[in-house]
Amino acid sequence: MQTGRPRASSPAWATLGRMPTPADARRKPTIRDVAAVAGVSRGTVSRVLNGGRWVSPEAQAAVEKAIETTGYQANHHARSLATGRANSVAFLLTEPHHLLFEDPTFSRLLRGALDELARRSMTLVLLVAGTADERARIATYVTGGHVDGVMLISAHESDPLLDGLIAAGVPTVTCGAPLGHLADVASVAIDEVEAARTLTRHLISQGHRRIGMITGPPDTPGGRYRLAGFREELGERFTPALVAPGDYSRESGRAAMRALLAAPERPDAVFAASDLMALGALETLREAGLRTPEDVAVAGFDDAREAATANPPLTTVHQPFEDIAAQMVDLLVGIIDGGEVAARTLPGSLVVRDSA
Question: What CATH superfamily is the domain 12-74?
Answer without folding.
Answer: lambda repressor-like DNA-binding domains (1.10.260.40)
